[in-house]
Amino acid sequence: MAALRGKFALLCFVLLFFSFLWANVQGNPNYRDALAKSIVFFQGQRSGRLPRDQQITWRSNSGLNDGFTAHVDLVGGYYDAGDNVKFNFPMAYTTTLLAWSVLDYAKKMGPQLDGARAAIRWSTDYLLKCARTTPGKLYVGVGDPNADHKCWQRPEDMANNRAVFSVSASNPGSDVAGETAAALAAASLVFRRVDSAYSRLLLATAEKVFQFAIQYRGSYSDSLGSAVCPFYCSYSGYKDELLWGAAWLHRATSDPYYYNFISSLGANDSPDIFSWDNKYAGAYVLLSRRSVVGSDKNFEKFQQDAENFMCRILPNSPYSSTQYTKGGLMYKLGQSNLQYVTSITFLVTTYAKYMAAKKHTFNCGNLLVTENTLRMLAKRQVDYILGENPLKMSYMVGFGTNYPRRVHHRGSSLPSVTVHPQSFGCEGGFQPYFYTANPNPNILVGAIVGGPNQNDFYPDDRTDYSHSEPATYINAAIVGPLAYFATSKLN
């Protein structure tokens, strides 16, 4: 009798386990709707003079005098997150990932393709100004972050005379220059067939900026100090950006110079993360395409590097160094964890796509990894973000019915100019808007917040920026995976 009870208990456990697994892989959020919203979000982050087709209508013109203090035109670009500063380092990374999404997923984007291109161009128009305005100088940011973070006001209310920051031969910034070159090179491929003149301008500028990056080597964190740290310090150094920039220029030009540069660089880190700061894994996956899809043996090293990275991410791999919450979410760091989830998920879906082209497989020890192995991991992360999680909460604002209402975002949390024409002073928005428990008056459609903690809990607290703040680089990384699953056979 005891044996029968034991077998019955085992059977119940097996059924429960497979029911849980089935629920994890069968969730089917509306990926097309999420894709559309993820791209619309960038309109909420725009700086400059807004176009007539602006969909997020509670935003208005802002930063129209950016560059004035340096006697240059630096109007445009994006605010990086919930603040009103333009940090070019994460902005360029955002642009690179958006461009990569269009390059590898354009056929799956459908009617959202034009919106994605527009989001890229809003940034590249600004980055071109930063790179071409003053010879020998690359502008890398507008707005004093230390002053800005003491304020809670709409972008539309900012003071006109904003600080301008740049790097040069005497104050180098190989990291921000390398990322800017990557963004411009990747974008040149996006526009190659739709605007050839613009594409050529982007590529020519990318090559000049990259030469600047390698000729005058040094970290922009050292050159600019508190203007970028601790906000967007280049913690991983600048070698990863040189690798990343060269990889994108090689894809854009096929010039052997860039392959030779990559080979001589000695960039051999073995990361288990991918982010606006650390680009090694992204460069490995990008370069691996030539080996996996193109069977080019010169790039086999990068294929191995990319697969080693996947082995550090996969939960069942004997080499995994990645934690997962009980609800199944990849968990890397406590502050804005979803930025790592979306960026790594982008690499996972992209490598799965490369594997599918040649029915390629690889091993993590005794674990056989197929394209489907990677697909299911990526789908679990995307579905979690869209509401398949213990709280049944979508971490994309405006998607579904249960989503964050108290987002750490100045423009979203304050009444719009049309509702409240009077300007908010620097500290004018703290009371009652920042500290109130009321929902934000404006919905920042498509924004993905920093996300839940390691216990799958999300407080929905505006003052808790590490969990409630959205960012352009979180969203940029999920565009490709959303497009992928919008037409995936897994649905």
UniProtKB/TrEMBL annotation:
This protein's UniProt keywords: Carbohydrate metabolism, Cellulose degradation, Glycosidase, Hydrolase, Polysaccharide degradation, Signal
GO biological process: cellulose catabolic process
Transport recorded as keyword: no
Organism: Lithospermum erythrorhizon
Keyword set includes Hydrolase: yes
Catalytic activity of the protein: Endohydrolysis of (1->4)-beta-D-glucosidic linkages in cellulose, lichenin and cereal beta-D-glucans
Family (UniProt): Belongs to the glycosyl hydrolase 9 (cellulase E) family.
Span of the signal peptide: 1-27
Active site per UniProt: 408, 460, 469
Start and end residues of each Glycoside hydrolase family domain: 31-481
Protein name: Endoglucanase
Enzyme Commission number, as recorded: 3.2.1.4
Record GO terms (molecular function): cellulase activity
Pfam families with a match to the protein in the record: Glyco_hydro_9 (PF00759)
